[in-house]
Design a protein that fits this description.
Blueprint: H1 2-22, H2 30-52, H3 62-84, H4 93-101, H5 109-117, H6 121-145, H7 154-158, H8 160-163, H9 165-179, H10 185-195, H11 198-210, H12 223-247, H13 252-262, H14 269-277, H15 281-306
Subcellular location: Cell membrane
Membrane topology: Multi-pass membrane protein
GO cellular component, one term: plasma membrane
Length: 307
């Protein structure tokens, strides 16, 4: 029941968002407004606090390398597959890759790591990798393709860390952690309150978006696309992580942590980013729902085989 209990809040809040939109409680722009609130305010606050309080020692190790290999492979496969198999536009391909390989390391990863692995120490390293390496790559690609002419805007991309609140907050958090800086108590308390809204608001926005599929600015997601994304996310990524772990001679506890983290479902950040840049929304929101649903079984199977 421990795995089930980790999923219950996700489904409850997503259902609340859908029902609130269905009954007209939040208005037609609910998903857009909530998504922008999360992207510009709540998520940066949460990332800054998490990274500023996280020690950076031990970030580079074999376990993280195994996870990084699986992430790079699956994000790349998803990125290429979106073009070769489903003829997705260049702007949609980064979202496709993110849906295939960007794990839900926050609201779902923390309880599962605690209950299955017994520690969140490796998950903290996964958060750093995704925030400091994977997220900038995805956002740079999205920013480039948001230009109507498809130009590579060097100055525009170079200023992305300053303009993008997610990257900026992450960088500031790492700087504070490295320098041992702490915010004044009033500022810390304010950001803590704001960051607490990130996960529930993102899930409510996800649920609200599910009630307006016709309003999506992207082409609808086909069942075949979702099947490929789910296979990459829930099967290919943990299998690649396991193979990399074998090659790197990881211990049994290390292997369990790597495979379980690699098998986490698609993060709802995928939907938030797709909504912010106006591409791939249908693929993103359905990928989150489908992989989160199926991961209950795949994570339990992986934990059973490796535990």
């Amino acid at each position: 029941m421990s795995l089930v209990s980790a999923f219950v809040p996700i489904w409850v809040l997503t259902a609340i968002g859908w029902a609130a939109c269905r009954w007209g409680l939040l208005g037609e722009a609910a998903a857009s407004v909530l998504g922008r609130f999360v992207f510009h305010l709540a998520m940066p606050s949460a990332l800054f606090l998490a990274l500023s309080r996280m020690p950076l020692s031990g970030f580079a190790n074999r376990s993280l390398l195994a996870f990084a290999v699986s992430t790079a492979a699956v994000v790349g496969l998803g990125w290429v597959g979106a073009s070769r198999l489903f003829d997705r536009t260049p702007g949609e391909r980064p979202i496709w890759g993110m849906a295939a390989g960007y794990v839900n390391s926050a609201n779902l990863g923390i309880p599962i790591a605690t209950q299955v692995v017994g520690s969140v120490s490796f998950l903290a390293e996964v958060v750093l990798l995704q925030v400091l390496v994977v997220t900038p790559v995805i956002l740079v690609a999205l920013d480039r393709h948001s230009d109507p002419a498809g130009r590579v805007r060097v100055r525009h991309i170079a200023s992305l860390p300053v303009r993008n609140p997610v990257i900026l907050a992450s960088l500031l958090g790492v700087v504070c952690s490295a320098a041992g800086l702490r915010l004044p108590s009033a500022a810390d308390a304010s950001l803590t309150l704001l960051s607490g809204a990130a996960v529930p608001a993102a899930l409510v926005a996800l649920g609200a978006s599910l009630h307006r599929p016709a309003a999506s600015r992207a082409e609808p997601a086909e069942p075949a696309e979702l099947a490929v994304i789910a296979a990459l996310k829930l099967v290919a990524q943990p299998v690649i992580a396991y193979a990399a772990g074998l090659a790197l001679h990881l211990s049994a506890p290390q292997m369990l942590a790597v495979v379980v983290c690699a098998g986490l479902p698609t993060a709802q950040n995928t939907f938030i980013y797709s909504q912010e840049y106006g591409v791939g929304e249908a693929v993103a929101n359905r990928a989150v729902v489908v992989t989160t649903t199926l991961s209950l079984a795949t994570l339990a199977a992986a934990a059973s085989m490796l535990g």
